[in-house]
Amino acid sequence: MKKFFWKRAANLLLAALLVLSAIPVTAFAEENSSGKLRDIAGECEITPPSSEGANGPEKMVDGRQDTMWINNGGNWPCTIEFALPAANTKSVKKVAIQFENHTNRSMDVTLQYALNNVTSDPVSVEGSQKTAVLSEGYEYVFQEAQSMSHLYVTLDSPLTDGAAGLFWPAIAEIQIFVDEGSQEVIELENLAVSRAMRLSMEESVDSSSAKGNVADNNFTTSAPLHTKNFNQIAQENGTLPFVEVELDTDQKIRQFVLAMKEDTSGAEYQYTIYGQSKWGTSYEEAASGSIKTASGQNKAEIEVSDPEYKYLKTVFTAKNDAAKGTIPQLAEFQAMAVKAAIVTPDESNIAWGSKDLHSNTSQSTISRVVDGNTKNTWTATQYPAYVDIGLGGEYSLSEIEVFTPSAGYSQYSLYYSNDSVNYTKLAEKTSTASCPESGETYQANGVKASSVRILLEYHSENEKAVLNEVRIKGNRTGNQSKTAFIPPVSYENSAYNVPVTEQDTINEVKGIINRNLGKEYEDWFTFEIGPEGKYDYYEIENGANGKIHITGNDGISLASGLNYYLKYYCNVSITQVGSQVQMPQKAAPVSQKIHKDCKVPVRYAYNYCTMSYSMPFWGEQEWRKELDWLALNGVNIVLDVTAQEEVWRQFLNELGYTHQEAKDYIAGPAYYAWAYMANLSGYGGPVHDSWFASRTELARKNQLIMRKLGMQPILQGYSGMVPVDIASKAKGEYALGSGDVIAQGSWCSFQRPYMLKTTTAAYQKYAELFYQCQKNVFGDVTDYYATDPFHEGGNTGGMNPADISSKVLDSMIKFDADSVWVIQAWQGNPSTALVNGLAGRKEHALVLDLYADKTPHWNDSNYSGGKEFQSAPWVYCMLNNFGGRMGLHGHMDNLVNGVADAANTAEKLAGIGITPEGSQNNPVLYDLLFETVWCDDADEPLEKINTEEWLKSYVTRRYGAESENAYQAMRILENTVYKASLNMLGQGAPESFINARPATSISAASTWGNAIISYDMQELERAAGLLLKDYDILKQSDGYLYDVADILKQILSNSSQGYHSKMVNALAEENLEEFTAASDKFLQLTDKVEEVLGTREEFLLGTWVEKAKALADGADDFSRDLYEFNAKALVTTWGAYPQAISGGLKDYSNRQWAGLTKDYYKVRWSMWIDYQKEVLAGNTPKAVNWFAFEWEWARSNKSYTTEASQDTDLKALSEDILKNYNSYDPAKSSQNDYPAEKTRIAEAGSEETSEDNNPASNVLDGNISTIWHTSWSKAEDKASYDKHYIIFELDEETELAGLRYLPRQEGGINGIITGYRIYVSTDNINYELAAEGTWAADSSWKIAAFDEAKRAKYVKFSTVSARSGETEHVFSSAAEIRLTVPPRLVEGIQVTSDKTALTIGETLLLKASVLPDDAQDKSLTWTSSDTTVATVNEKGLVTAKAEGTAIITAMANDGSGISGSISLTIRPVLVKSIQLSAPKTSLQVGETVQISSVVLPGDAKDKSLSFTSSNPAVVSVDANGLATAQAEGTATVTAAAKDGSNATAAITFTASKKPEGAQTPQPKPLPQKGTSVKIKKYQFRITASTASKKTVAITKFTDKKSTKITIPQSIKINGYSYQVTEIATNAFRNNKNLKQAVISKNIRKIGKNAFNGCKNLKQITIKSKVLNKIENNAFKGIKKNAKITVPKKKFKAYQQLLKKAKTAKNIKIVMK
């Protein structure tokens, strides 16, 4: 047995054999705990600030201690950039630096890194800042190897003998070690000994006793191979000498070893080694060569590439004359195999030795999983990874055994298939148990299968998937069958290859009306395609018959004109989230023709990332809604990657990839964005076969809509992306040479696809093929193509970027002469050279200034080689969102100013665009941006939008009503969350601490995000309060409800920081009781977040996940699980361990979603809180494995609701949050600050004013980004805190209450003050100690309160202790400091009301004015003197309960004792109105009629009436209302309420003389109760029939064709009026045509199943205010998302009635 250490990449053969696995550390050489380290510093591109003479950066990596790089001058701090090799895929584990050998000199060293070439936003390495003595050097070891594209080393604070040093920055040597990962020790075994079944030689020696010597692992023994020499054999034409070995089964041979017996004959033999598999019919040559017998030359080791043989044979011939007379003596014949790959026959395993094996990774060693050896390990390059095992036929499976390494535990899922396409889930392992020696067994229960798939999802001891063996048992029942893949029909032969007419365009615009407003509104408008003009335009004017006529140059302009009219004449707001579409009664005419031009020709939409962070699981419904919205907002260019998978499938198939190999390259739906930007491949896949046809159908459908409207999709351009194994796959005309392909390294620890050299002929062939495949899928649908070669990193392979861009554009133009290359301006792209390559053809380019709303590049002369990207057409874009992360955030003023500035000054502005990584958030910004470029006359300068006026209109149309409170709330948002200067930190909105992985120190949830709130949090809460003031008026608007929830989640996100700070402070003080209280509150706040999010469908995890799972409808279990994994992983871990941790991607796409908050974020925090409680209790808990929890959740299969909660009272929830979970913190509140402008720095004991410009005055400048820092250079200032003080001088002597302190905010720790003393003085001579204490060592606001108020003109703030990154030095720092004054108390309260008398049941909101206006605590407590008469809630809302008088009092809560009161009188409910009716009012003398009456309201205390006649001689009336005609004439009968309300009603009768001989008509008898009557389409049943009460119930509706019904208020029977008060059981059941129903005002009861099964019923209006009963399932089975409109005052009551009646949660209940 031999052992060899095979070095990686030693040669192609050996590189293919390396298997990374969890092998014990002892098996490796030169390794650390995670693998072997390799220094790559010499391969880096090094950029120092400068170099002195010949002492350049190359001296840092020349391996010599006596040479060094020296900076050209003593400029400190000094940062050196190391750009790692572009093709590097390994993570950095250690950095080591050597300096000059000075023992008395030191400097500070700090590390930062950049990922994916995002050099504008380097990430600080926590704990890397150290003071290095030069003679000792510097070393930092990353806890987890860190992926990076750049390393930054910053040198600072030079000291000599402890004082400021006078030397220049210099480095002798630097080493940057990457973790090569564990390398497998390849152990070889001689199969000729261990696995030989038979050993044979030439017949004459085959029975020789020495025969065994040739295969005994002993080189000192031998055996003759013949009895005759070669001359004799030749003469006799005999059999040549040979040795033959039969093995137990086919085995992979790595090496043959031959050894001849040593002698001095000089013989040399020729040998040929043959092999044959067990299924073979003849030998094939495996190797040949020559071997001598001379010492040192008598042994041959022959390497082979793992051929599989059962039979081996070596034949010898004489090569020289010396050999001809000899008989060869063979000492040893060895057939060496990798021990881990040796096959053990396993006949009971029907998968044993299967050749039908496939995996999406490590295919070359896949046979290990069915080789009969349960100990050797197959290792994938990552997890998840799958293995398909073909059984060669159909089997009835009994059980499956799985073997994984015993170290740690594996988790996986098992699937089976009978067509090799559709895989059904059989079992899964979710436990954390290690695999036993006997494996893990799963019962298959006789399922029929011809293929088994195992999806390896996790291994606790490895970053990669591992599998030892799969044993499958069963009985064969038939032949194997495979379902053939059916590709989509070509575009040319599809139903979408049709011309578009003007009528198609107009119909498409009408469709927007139909889908968003209702078909009935289509008739309000007429549309006309007008002539082309200089600009895109629309015109709106009054048309014929009261219609509105809109003209535009194309469909997009028509839709834009429609949107303008809807916004400004109908107060309608159609947005991505929270639309308000309540239309007016009729179309409003325009006062004059409206004409609008668009200043720019391009209105662009989307970022590649939008495709994955927002849209990966969209179907037709979501896309249809989005396209409507885009059209209404004028978008005409849309990035669209839908169905690009089919393009790549065809492309790869043409190159030589099998169907399954192509699917393995194509990523899962959540990861398409990065696949098409060449950042990764395959991850999240493979998709189901049905995916290709369904997504192609969706894409073609969408693009036909786009064509009708006048939009163009942007398809993919080709810049050379290919799979990493392309060189071995591509054949024929697409075969590649060694110089055609460039390795690309990694992106966030993902292996990047390779790139073709665009300067080669191969690239041109591939590009031509790619565009042809794309045309086959989509047709000639566009002239726009997007591609960004070497996006966020990559390796150009030495090509000039100008050549790259020139060739990429060549290939585009060759395919489409009118092509436009769409290029993202992002992170240094496009480079100057790349733009140079477009010279002379820039009209074929369109550059997206991707983040112009924050950091515009168009006006930067240093970006891309010149302003406006060297005068290339470009688009001003709003990015705003990163990772789909949610939060109120934007740069509203930048948008307004930036677009106008660009339009009026730029020469090459082509348009505006939206480029969010995640869309459907901050709707006001999109509405505003798209309006910025439409104007009255585009030939004139573009005017800026006046946001003050614009927001007033926006609020009115979004909320459906005017509201000054809502408008003022929106203005607050404009000046807080949407103010550019307050939102310029990090990428996107400040992130919630709830969403961050738990820790004591949190800067953000994601790597590149931030959590710093620069605006006043309490201002946002004030905005929410204003918005709630008109809740009852505005709540009918979905846009309003969305905004309320959106603001609430931001408020809670902000507040989470304060509650986290309280937990951290309690930990620092080791106070378990305080920590428990603070953590309980933090978790309660998390519950409130969940509750708020649950009110909106947009904020539900289920909305995201269930859409993903729905994509597998009609597919299989594997696809369903896979798509769910895509959805959950993207928003949590993003990728597997290397990507999440080393790649920095964990929580990059964190979301504020119900379900995710409860089951993921809250659980994480609970784990952390429990851990900390154990520590505080003195225990030693087990460390939390965060990734294990996160990854398990990402792979879970729990379903989540897609329906927003209908039970949450959003108003009450809002009030609770604003009261109990606000961000108010005395330390943060500026309410009691003494004005900073009246404060000066009188003296600073120490301040850094030279290098970093950190003077003490910065603490008063209102800018949290600037700091005061004590001196870096003065040794005495760094040795003690004696001079760490600031003296403040006030304008006048003032009474002070304390001081507020804000530590530095940019992430540094030096100088964060943890202990302080504060002194006060009136003369700056005599000082008194006012306060001393400690603070937590975090970056939140701190407050120091004096025990009692102190009068002072001077305040001295001194440091006692502070944080420092240098153990031997001390520092102090501050971002802001404010002095505080005592709070104002309440001095007066006045309670007022519009009235002081109420009736029982009435409510009244009292108003309380609190004085003075600047009182700190204006909160009140309301009480009633008699709660049996009237109650009052915490808001001052009084409810009248009973007759009497009650005094309502409002008491101040600030301890001032001030109160205010009002006396209220409560009266009974009086009659408000009376309704009279009679069967007839024209009577004949002697005729009698009964007057019927209805007294309202129904709960009036006394409903009795008195009746009188104006002329009893003509018509008399009795006390019960029976009227009798006495004589000819006219008389009026009046009924009057007896309760003193003065309510009356009258009815007039005319009496005539009875004709001669005529009988006096008598009233028809009252019908009996229970009688059934049919009137028109209705069947009624009489439910009451007396003189005073006549009612009926509808029992059946007979017209099954009606689509709309209105329940009558009353009907006539026998001349009597009967009120319709009930809809009986089953009355309208299963009326499938019914769409609208109006329930009249007299209905009191709706019976069981009344409308059950009316599946198209979508609009129900309940006018009744007396409805008191709705029985079960009355509205079951009506249309999903139907709307029930109820009276405003009955909303809550009817909501409860409908809930009790089991009304579906998706039914929307709204107020009229």
**What percentage of residues falls in helices of 4 or more residues?**
10-25%
Please, how many helices?
Answer: 33
Cα-atom Rg, whole angstroms? 42 Å
> How many individual β-strands?
90
Instruction: Give the integer mean of the pLDDT values.
Output: 92
Shape: globular
Q: For the largest sheet, list the strands in their spatial order.
A: 39-40-41-47-48-49-50-51
Low-confidence residue ranges: 1-34
Task: Please describe the biggest sheet, giving its number of strands, its sense, and whether it closes into a barrel.
Answer: 8 strands, parallel, barrel
Which structural class matches the secondary elements? alpha+beta
Distance between the termini: 88 Å
Strand content: 25-35%
Q: Main traits of this protein?
A:
globular; alpha+beta
Q: How would you summarize this macromolecular structure in one to three sentences?
A:
Helix content is 21%, strand content 29%.
Please give a structural write-up.
With 1712 residues, the chain is of the alpha+beta class. Helices cover 21% and strands 29% of the residues. It has 33 helices and 90 strands. Helix 5 (502-516) packs across helix 12, helix 20 crosses helix 21 (964-974) and helix 25 (1072-1093) packs antiparallel against helix 29. The longest helix has 31 residues, at 1038-1068. It is globular, with a radius of gyration of 42 Å.
Helix-strand blueprint:
Layout: E1 2-4, H1 12-15, E2 31-32, E3 35-39, E4 45-47, E5 69-70, E6 78-83, E7 92-98, E8 105-114, E9 123-124, E10 130-133, E11 138-146, E12 150-160, E13 163-164, E14 170-171, E15 173-179, E16 186-190, H2 191-194, E17 196-201, E18 223-224, H3 230-236, E19 242-252, E20 255-260, E21 268-276, E22 284-292, E23 299-303, E24 308-318, H4 321-324, E25 329-338, E26 357-359, E27 378-379, E28 385-403, E29 410-417, E30 424-429, E31 440-443, E32 448-459, E33 466-467, E34 469-478, H5 502-516, E35 525-529, E36 537-542, E37 548-552, H6 555-570, E38 594-598, E39 602-605, H7 608-613, H8 620-632, E40 637-639, H9 644-655, H10 659-665, H11 672-676, H12 689-709, E41 712-716, E42 721-722, H13 726-729, E43 741-742, E44 746-747, E45 750-751, E46 754-756, H14 761-778, E47 784-786, H15 801-815, E48 820-825, H16 832-836, E49 845-849, H17 867-871, E50 874-878, H18 892-905, E51 909-914, H19 923-931, E52 934-935, H20 947-959, H21 964-974, H22 1017-1029, H23 1031-1034, H24 1038-1068, H25 1072-1093, H26 1101-1110, H27 1117-1130, H28 1137-1142, ...
Parallel strand pairs: 35-37, 39-40, 39-51, 40-41, 41-47, 47-48, 48-49, 49-50, 50-51, 62-69, 71-78, 81-84, 82-85, 84-86, 85-87, 86-88, 87-89, 89-90
Antiparallel strand pairs: 1-16, 2-3, 3-15, 4-6, 5-14, 6-12, 7-11, 7-15, 8-9, 8-10, 8-12, 12-13, 16-25, 17-19, 18-25, 19-24, 20-23, 20-25, 21-22, 21-24, 26-28, 27-33, 28-31, 28-32, 28-34, 29-30, 29-32, 36-37, 36-38, 38-52, 42-46, 43-46, 44-45, 53-55, 54-59, 55-58, 55-60, 56-57, 56-58, 61-64, ...
Helix pairs in contact: 5-6, 5-12, 8-12, 9-14, 14-15, 20-21, 21-22, 22-24, 22-31, 24-25, 24-31, 25-29, 26-27
